[in-house]
Design brief:
Length: about 210
């Protein structure tokens, strides 16, 4: 074996050892699941209370989440249990609880052999219930438009001189026709005038005869 071959073999072994160390170091520094990767909150969904547990576990370890409601004298009631696999973006597990204000809940997380703890601090629901203001839309005001009544037609006005409605024919039309000779009483008037002329002429003739 030449000196050159020995040097080449040593370089190959060095690269292989460095690669193995890098792989082992990366595996050893892989993120592990912790209780800090989990959080819980009491929110409203459609006017009803729910407990939401978010698993932001970058190691994506399979976990089991259990939720308990704490009553008087420390008595607990299990609300539900769900499996969840976390991610860096966060995965949510929703538990219908229909909670009331000021209720205490305990949330327990089990994730492989790394986590077996409660989320701290314990969860206490808000002082405002979901049925009032959280999920219930406020009533909207409505404006009702009313049609205006149609204006009344003006009442007919009576003429001060004739007492006849202003909408009817005016009696002045008959006077105009009489003045122009188009009235039906024209022959009667003419006859009376002729009689008066004859009577006047007779009276004049009779008077002159007596005087003579």
């Amino acid at each position: 074996m030449t000196r050159r071959s020995v040097r080449r073999s040593r370089n190959v072994l060095g690269v292989a050892a460095g690669s193995a160390a890098l792989i082992v170091g990366t595996a050893g520094s892989a993120p592990a699941s912790t209780i800090d990767d989990f959080s819980a909150a009491a929110t409203c969904d459609g006017g009803k209370g729910v407990i939401v547990v978010t698993a932001a576990d970058p190691s994506a370890t399979d976990a089991v989440v259990s939720v308990f409601a704490r009553g008087a004298a420390g008595v607990e009631t299990k609300i539900g249990e769900q499996p969840v696999t976390g991610s860096g973006q966060g995965v949510r597990a929703v538990f219908p609880a229909d909670w009331t204000p000021g209720t205490a809940y305990r949330v327990h997380v089990t994730a492989g052999d790394q986590v077996d703890q409660d989320i701290r601090p314990g969860l206490v629901t808000p002082s405002t219930p979901c049925a009032v203001g959280n999920g219930t839309p406020l009533p909207t005001a409505r404006t009702t438009l009313t049609a205006s009544p149609a204006p009344a037609a003006p009442a007919p006005t009576a003429s001060a001189s004739t007492g006849v409605s202003g909408n009817g024919p005016s009696p002045a039309a008959h006077d105009d026709l009489a003045e122009t000779g188009a009235s039906s009483r024209t022959p009667l008037i003419a006859g009376l005038a002729a009689a008066l002329v004859v009577a006047g002429g007779g009276a004049v003739w009779f008077g002159m005869r007596r005087r003579g």
